[in-house]
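Hi everyone,

Forwarding the result from last night's run.
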Amino acid sequence: MIILAVDLGTKRTGFAMCDPQEKMALALPTLVDVTPVDVAVLAQERGAGEVVVGLPLNMDGTVGPSARRVLDFIDELQIHCTVPVVPWDERLSTAEGQTRLREQGLDRKDRHRRADVAAAIVILESYLRRPR
């Protein structure tokens, strides 16, 4: 099944999707000022059977303002989306994405430009590794 992963930012939103065999995470273009309708349309266009949205919990696992904003976004996304929408703990996904970009030798400007997509890939990879 194709799964669409979303790293919702306040300005830019990163996306990744997996192949139908759920073996590989692929980067998609970053979008600016994304709405739940935009994500639902993207999921439909890409043939996603599920949407995973990174949930930025506090390090102690509690829901802070950022996570509350994402949960509100998910609530609205579920109204517009015809496939399941799954919140997924994204703690440290941005840091892991930054580390991967740094290891690729990208300069700060390129790392900044690709940070949201890198985080979406980390979110998707962790979701694909989940026990079923």
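The mean pLDDT is 87.

Cheers,
N.
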